[in-house]
């Protein structure tokens, strides 16, 4: 099934994070697993800017668990670096969505990593649930930064 | 209220963990927050050896959240070090228990950290619940390593 | 040895964090170890507001490892909650400093946790090093929010 | 450049991990980022069973940072579940290696996740370094469980 048509401008948000001390490892760089955390922070904020508070969803028992993830690491990020997480809604299907990410170091615009995550829409018992028209409409809105 | 009387021999278990790569930080040593994780792993195993599977508790909606923690760091642990987490039940009150910990590097018996955690017994709505006689009896058993 | 005299107004900063999804556990609340991460984020920002960039220190091989920590958990914080981490320099000795913390939920001002950490000043080989007059002077400055 | 020829039997090890409490999230399941940690634990053990102690490498300033990762999540793992991490060396090139992973729940053999990671061989300054013949030979050995 093809994706719903997506407006590439409306689909994009940039969320800034700063690398924490405990996100580094003995190589002196950000441990690779933490990029999944940055991408998740950015997704949650992406939703918030379109009126969808994920915390409210979780209270209603609706979740968007990650079902697939892919990341390419390009350049190391280090403690205290600021990173811009460019987040783009790339696909909307019946019960899944895909977000694409690029993580750019703010200081010098170097891309540290790029990747994507596919999320499934499930209920509290982890059963796949079709996305409602209302939810899809929320996903299609341009961001509003509060 | 004083603690229930505790047999110091029965109250003690030693659980071994190995330091993971992502538990180190840019100082090249284990990040201090990870000791709380090791202490938790040891508590869960301490309970298992006395017939109390914490995972079963959580399915019944009973929990033992940490309500107080104190740790003194003595010597750095490093990637791939094996640590023996000495875990001693130190206090049993109406609805709380306290465990004392010492974390010793296996290679040279150096103590890397010592500390304690106090846990409350709560139900699924986070309401404090008195420990049943049956649960207290489980806590008083000596360990049985499977 | 007594602490250097500290101006309680100058010694205080408040740093806001938002609870991430992966900082929750199966109880639906923030896992207790993550409060150490919030306290660390706040310390790093406390230093930055006084002209001391911790990342620069680490590049020079100077570190402030945590040597003691104590936390009392008062009320659960949940996913997406905003927390104000009140951070107060409480003690400055020859080679150690202590920070006191209170973590307040922004929505309702409920205190979720309070605690303190003692840090040692060490060089790249983890040898304790006396704090220079210059560093102590930095610690005594009031904050400047950029 | 094609991979060095690999013996599929010698290339395989299975490493068991148990899900920790702090690896779960508010959905009551293992947070997806933690699978990267399990895969790393298994890689380190895979190397150890072939005589290559990764901790020794890091002391010599040699590292195997992850440069690409891909994971498909199939079924949720839960607190206290035991998982067998099947780890297979899948590709050996001039300066990179690829490991394939399948994570199976021990209780019922359900596959919770599968994926792979590509690692680069770098020195302490993060410069790519060709794998020595000696190192490649180590990678080709069958495991020896101590």
Walkthrough of the structure:
Four copies of one chain form a homotetramer. With 146 residues, the first copy, chain A, is α+β, with helices and mostly antiparallel strands. Chain A has helices at residues 34-48, 54-59, 133-140, and strands at residues 12-18, 66-73, 82-92, 96-105, 111-120. Chain A has a single domain (12-140), classed as Roll (Thiol Ester Dehydrase, Chain A). Helices cover 20% and strands 32% of the residues of chain A. A five-stranded antiparallel β-sheet of chain A has the order 1-3-4-5-2, with helices on one face. In chain A, a hairpin with a 5-residue loop joins strand 4 and strand 5 (111-120). Chains A and D meet through helix 1 and strand 2 of A and helix 1 and strand 2 of D. Strand 2 of chain B pairs antiparallel with strand 2 (66-73) of chain C.
The top level CATH class name of chain A: Alpha Beta
Q: Give the H and E element order of chain A.
A: EHHEEEEH
Question: What best-fitting shape of chain A do the alpha-carbon axes yield?
Answer: globular
Question: If interface size is counted as residues with C-beta under 8 Å from the partner's C-beta, which chains form the largest one?
Answer: A-D, 22 and 22 residues
At CATH level 3, the topology of chain A is Thiol Ester Dehydrase, Chain A
């Amino acid at each position: 099934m093809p994706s719903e048509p997506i407006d590439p401008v409306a689909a994009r948000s940039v969320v800034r994070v700063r690398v924490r001390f405990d996100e580094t490892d003995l190589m002196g760089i950000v441990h690779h697993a933490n990029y999944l955390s940055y991408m998740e922070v950015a997704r949650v904020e992406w939703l918030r800017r379109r009126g969808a508070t994920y915390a409210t969803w979780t209270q209603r028992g609706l979740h968007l668990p990650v079902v697939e993830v892919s990341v390419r690491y390009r350049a190391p990020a280090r403690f205290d670096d600021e990173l811009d997480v460019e987040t783009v809604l790339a696909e909307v299907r019946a019960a899944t969505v895909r977000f694409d990410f690029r993580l750019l170091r703010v200081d010098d615009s170097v891309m540290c990593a790029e990747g994507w995550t596919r999320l499934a829409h499930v209920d509290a018992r982890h059963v796949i649930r079709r996305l409602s028209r209302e939810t899809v409409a929320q996903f299609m809105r341009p961001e509003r930064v509060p």
